[in-house]
Amino acid sequence: MVRCFLIHTVCPVSALSAGESRVLYSRVFGPDDGVLSERHRELSPEERRLLQKEKVAAVARQVRSAVSLSREASGRLIVETMPGEENLALQDADCGVVRLRAGDPFSEETSALWLGVQSLGFTLVCEPHENLLLAEGTLRNLTRHCLEHLHMLGQGSEVLLKSNRIDVLLSRLLPHGQLLFLNHRFAQSLEKEVAAYMAK
Amino acid sequence: MYSHASESLIKQAREIQVSELQKFYSRLMKMLQGKELGHDTVDSLQRLHLILSATKYTRTLPLELQKRFVALLSSPAEQHQVLSAAVLRETLPLTGQELNYNHQLNSHAAGLLLSQVGRTEIERLSLLLHYCETCIYKTHHIILQLSKKLVDWLRYASVMQGVGTSSGGFFTGPRSRQPVPIAELDGSVSGDFFTVLCVGQGFTEDQWMNVYSFSMLRHWLLTYHSSCSTTVDADDRSEVDGSVVSMVSATSSSSRLLPPKERLREKAFQYCQRLIEQSDRKAHKKTDTELQKACLVEAVCILDCVCVEDASLVYRTFPCIKALFGRLSSELSYARVLLPIAQFYLNHGEIAAVDCENVWKVVFGRFPTELFNDPFLAHELLRFLRLNLESIELRVPQYTRYFPNLLKFLAWDSPAMVDDFVDLLPSMVTTGTAVELLHTLLDLPCLSATLVLQHRSTCLPISEPVGRSFVSLDAFRNPSFRGLFLFLLRTEAGSGDTMDRLSTLHELLVEAADWPRVTQCARTVPVLLHVFFNTIVTIADEKLLAHLILVMLERSSLLLNIPAYIKEIHRVFSCHLLRLCKLHPSLVVNQSHELLEFAGSTANVYSKEELYTHVVWVLGEYLSVSCDSRCSVSLITSCFEALEAVLFEITSSAPPTGKVCPAPKVINTLMSALAKLASRSHDLIPRVSLFLSKLRTVTRSGSVAWCSDEEDLVAIVTRGEELWSLLKAPGVAQSVLTPPPHVIAPQWHRDTNVALPLQLRALTSLTHSQ
């Protein structure tokens, strides 16, 4: 099962300190990590939400760090692409996976797969025993849809103001955090549904 | 991509005033009263979501508004469901009363339910499968029911294509079409049951459930078929006669008689075998080829699961896995599929008495060589090692020989891999390969540079003129240096501890010192060295430790020239030299020749100050009869003379050009060492006293060329005086300077009571007449 999906900055943000990342979208799946672990049973729902937000922020920070180190090592220059060039942006994207140790931040070990598209990172945190090949494909697919449907290569803020589109995308391609084995026909069928929703 | 506008939107959302927010809530309340919700309302709902999610602190909605959202969850319009679920996710959950779902649950409401309340696994999965059914009652029969459903969906889904969903427009054919069978990914008609790798124009409901069921099958098997979930067995057994179960589990024909769990296992087995066969077909689309790979991984993992549950299935499964290995072992693009296959071999190879040698040759020998730059493969391979370490150490003893190859993952992408190697390195440390491993770790930045060169070499054609001067790239392609690089790129240990022409290699790679990949790698080496030494002290004998000390001394000047790197390595060496000598004091006498050679070289004071200080300290501390009976007077004398010479030299002239003055610590350590040695061989005391009195005289006349700071000079002189007065009482001196073990054993709770400086100060004040 996928623990969470996030979209966050991987570039420097003036309002934040150097290593911080601004989370633009986050969706956590499944029973709350806090409920499952002994330590957090006594927390109030408010504290649990806070804890969850902080865990998501911790993931974003670690991925941000991984992305910048990876880009530094590869020496590749980030090329800005125009709206309409989503496929190119995706092709140029760097990718990798961060091992998140047990307790940092989730109670068990997880793997955070990331795609760095220019100044933003798209991250999928997977539980152990997850099919990472499938997760990688799903992440790429999700990212492509987000870039297209939210016009993310432009200067707009639709990722913030039209987040319900991402919710619907996730409900089809990653229902309740479940990765799906979709061949191109199944995927097409789901994508038609999504497109129909977006058109409204 | 990320604009100023977005940033300011978030800022606004976070800083919204309470009064403004209350107004917004009331406006929303009015908007939501109406039956139809227009675009304005949708936009406002979206803004509300942004306001709520932009901050980590929870904002409470007014109860009326919250209830309105709960009602909106069951709206027929999906947009309303999505938005209300999104908003409710960001606020505090309501108590059970309000979230009472007796009616149909849509996916978004279900998701909300799952995230806010701690539902059990079984409910989560049932909700996933049954969007429309109410299964929210806690009973173990649900597992049985769902097992049966899963079997139906996996094995008996329709083999006819469904009607195309939005097939309006161009492709509206006559309604009374013949039902068309499903097809394979290569276009041929399907000859067997429906799976995720089958296509059609449209899909039936049970075909969808086939996809969902397979997608969660492994999770289901792991959760409900593991040995701890035995509560349902009683019900299983009641369905079938006990004796029949054991007989039929080995065969596939009479599976209808099997209890649900076994039946599901059998169907899962068949499904996976079919997937493996289907993956051999050439798919028309690239995304489908990728899906085939993912299916192979999943199929092998599930087969592994079911074989763990029921060992008798191993015999039926192995031929298939073996054939798959044979088919894919030479295809690098299928490398990630080979890892679950390796897992299968590891888990079941012994039972089936299958030779796994080839598998490990590919996994340890080939993958790191060819695919060191694939971050996903690296992650999965190292995780495979971590999770199966015990088993691998037992069944694949040759694993420890492959460290030169495995370290390539680290050399290429250190930040991502260092964590895994901190966990794995101890398993790679053996007494047989320890020296080679130490050399390999020290040369990781060189390996990193080499991999970069190898990568560039394959990307840049040879004839193309390179813009910047790539001396290293030319060297890499030069046949006379081939041997050096080939040694670094070796796959297995055992062909030699290190190479002869290390300094040549370092010269060739001098420009690599500021390549980011190389500097990132260099930063991780100290960490790994600590892990190495921490492990080696537990298994090495004195002979090996002596050898390691020699390696440290030798390599201290043979490192790739990255200044911060060299300094850090010296620091690590110092720390562990101290530790090793403390554990085995006789090492100092054993290796006195090499240690003296190091300590007697004045150049080392300036270029390797930290390490030098520690070498001098261990000489002073452990070169004594009480540590090793072979320590002779002549040995002590020759050590004394070597150190004395260096001390004279560094305190009589300015440092050589380009070097800084030696730190007071070096000089103090030298003086202390001389004093300690003299206290063991009293003939030497006059020589020390002479030096110390000369030191006092010289420094009284003002500043000196070899010490730039006045305070430092004072510290040195003070220490000199303390030692001088201590040596006036030779008998006492020895026990003060080198306390016998029972004195330094922790009988006191606070070390500061027995600290040497304090003792000296006390004695000085006692013995000083003025």
Give the helix level of chain A as a range of percent.
40-55%
- Return Rg of chain A in Å: 17 Å
Determine the strand fraction of chain A and express it as a percent band.
Answer: 15-25%
Poorly predicted ranges of chain A (pLDDT <50, ≥5 residues)?
Answer: none
- What would the CATH topology of chain A be? Beta-Lactamase
Question: Which strands sit side by side, in order, in the main sheet of chain B?
Answer: 1-2
The helix content of chain B, as a percent range, equals 55-70%
Oligomer: heterodimer
Q: Mean pLDDT of chain B, rounded to whole units?
A: 84
The geometry of chain B reads as: elongated
Which sequence of strands runs across the widest sheet of chain A?
A: 2-1-5-4-3
Q: Ends of chain A: how far apart?
A: 30 Å
Q: Quick check: average pLDDT of chain A? A: 90
Total count of strands of chain B = 2
The value of Rg of chain B in angstroms is: 37 Å
Major sheet size, sense and barrel closure of chain A: 5 strands, antiparallel
Which residues of chain B sit in consecutive blocks of at least 5 with pLDDT less than 50? 97-104, 117-122, 130-139, 165-173, 227-254
Number of strands of chain A: 5
The CATH architecture of chain A: 2-Layer Sandwich
Keywords summarizing the entry:
heterodimer; A: 200 residues; alpha+beta; Beta-Lactamase; 7 helices; B: 770 residues; mainly alpha; two-stranded antiparallel ribbon; 64% helix
Describe, in plain words, how this protein is organized in 3D.
The complex is a heterodimer of chains A (200) and B (770). Chain A has 200 residues and is an alpha+beta fold. Chain A has one domain (1-197): 2-Layer Sandwich (Beta-Lactamase), CATH 3.30.450.60. Chain A has 7 helices and 5 strands; from the N terminus they run ββαααβββαααα. Chain A has helices at residues 33-36, 45-74, 86-92, 132-149, 158-161, 163-173, 184-199, and strands at 2-9, 23-28, 94-100, 110-117, 120-126. A 5-stranded antiparallel β-sheet of chain A has the order 2-1-5-4-3, sandwiched between helices. In chain A, α6 runs antiparallel to α7 (184-199). The mean pLDDT of chain A is 90. With 770 residues, chain B is an all-alpha fold. Among the domains of chain B are: 1-93 and 103-135, no CATH class; 426-462 and 469-583, no CATH class; 607-745. Chain B is 64% helix and 1% strand. Chain B contains 39 helices and 2 strands. Chain B has a two-stranded antiparallel sheet with strand order 1-2. The longest helix of chain B is centred in the middle third of the chain and has 24 residues, at 286-309. Chain B is elongated and about 110 Å long. Chains A and B meet through β2, α2, β3, β4 and α4 of A and α1, α3, α5, α6 and α7 of B.
